[in-house]
Design a protein that fits this description.
Layout: H1 2-44, H2 49-86, H3 89-95, H4 100-140, E1 146-147, E2 149-157, E3 160-167, E4 172-182, E5 185-198, E6 203-214, E7 219-229, E8 240-241, H5 250-262, H6 268-295, H7 302-330, H8 335-358
Antiparallel strand pairs: 1-8, 2-3, 3-4, 4-5, 5-6, 6-7
């Protein structure tokens, strides 16, 4: 029993130590490159060191740590396991009566720690950190992160639907249409050249409108140049922010998706973000099993071959994740299936490789 605990502690220490060392190293390089790229902006905007460190880089680091986590999990496993194999440590452990399945236990335990770490970061720590980082970039680096949303169809309350051809950053919606229904019957339709938000009055201003009200026996037609009205919608609902879904913690993200669906808003990118947050931590187990299985056997080429093969597999996994995202965006596959296909496929590869390694 003591022998098993010694092996478990040894492998866990090697795994986690190598992983965090590799992550720290790559993050240091990324931060240096980012500083050199944005130094002119920092100096020209006279940003304080405190703002740069606490508002930007302390929120920048968790994002990239989680982004690189699957890749460096794989590299860490490949690196230290390959060294153990070529030092004949793996052979010695297996020769002492430890089964291959038992050998994988500390690997899976370490993967569990990293998966929990990745899940917590991705779902609860990174979203608010990303918001602070984005606000910093908007103020000091980028000119704008707000774009123009087009072809807007919304249900703003039961039986009330609006349409706008586009909504601009200066809070103007062009080619505005409002329709009210009583059950399946249209009772009112209003069309206008545009609708504008008046921040001082807190009302919407409708310009050059034409209104049709339908009663049981007749219709009432009205037109005018301007009308101030209150509608159950706010301008921030139409301000399209790039990657806004990344700033919501997961419970808020799920609630926002439900709210958007009731309004008839396209939630595709939000659904992708939700499933990606669940799928990425799970990949830690898959990549750990593949890496340990490949590196635990001595093969011609040594550590260099192991690292090369490991990098090829990890990058193929990342590439496949991007391809599956395209499948989801194009509608070729449901979001859930598209985001989990890489994990399903590489789980099969992991089982095949582990069986090969165990023989």
């Amino acid at each position: 029993m003591k022998f098993y605990k010694t092996i478990d502690f040894y492998i866990t220490k090697k795994f986690l130590g190598t992983f965090f060392y590799a992550i720290a190293l790559i993050l240091s390089i990324v931060v240096v490159f980012d500083v050199s790229e944005n130094l002119d902006e920092f100096l020209s905007k006279e940003v304080t060191v405190k703002e740069i460190v606490f508002d930007y880089y302390l929120n920048f680091i968790p994002y990239f740590a989680n982004l690189f986590s699957p890749l460096f999990t794989f590299i860490a496993v490949i690196y230290f396991t390959s060294k153990m194999a070529y030092n004949s440590e793996i052979i010695a452990i297996l020769s002492s009566g430890v089964s291959y399945a038992r050998l994988m236990r500390p690997y899976m335990f370490s993967a569990l720690i990293l998966a929990i770490f990745s899940y917590y970061l991705g779902n609860y720590v990174i979203p608010p950190a990303t918001k602070v980082m984005n606000d910093f970039r908007l103020k000091n680096i980028e000119n704008t992160r707000i774009g123009v949303e087009r072809d807007i169809h919304r249900q703003i309350e039961p039986g009330v639907f609006i349409y706008m051809r586009n909504y601009t950053p200066n809070d103007v919606g062009n080619n505005f249409t409002l329709e009210r229904f009583d059950g399946a019957n249209l009772v009112e339709k209003l069309t206008a050249d545009n609708i504008r938000w008046d921040a001082e009055t807190g009302k919407w201003v409708i310009n050059n409108y034409w209104k049709r009200t339908i009663f049981d026996n007749y219709e009432l037609l009205e037109s005018g140049y301007r009308i101030d009205t209150t509608l159950n919608m706010k301008p921030e609902e139409f301000r399209f922010k790039k990657n806004e879904m990344e700033t919501f913690i997961t419970p808020e993200l799920i609630s926002e998706i439900k709210l958007m669906k009731t309004r008839g808003v396209n939630t595709l990118e939000w659904e992708i973000e939700k499933h990606k947050r669940m799928a990425t931590p799970f990949s830690t187990f898959i990549l750990t099993l593949i890496g340990a299985s490949l590196a635990s056997r001595k093969i011609k080429g040594g550590l260099g071959f192991h690292l090369g093969l490991g990098l090829a597999l990890s990058f193929s996994y990342i590439l496949f994740m991007q391809i599956s995202t395209v499948f989801a965006i194009s509608g070729s596959a449901p979001v859930f299936i598209a985001m989990w296909i890489p994990n399903i496929l590489y789980s099969v590869i992991a089982l095949f490789v582990s069986r090969w390694a165990a023989k």
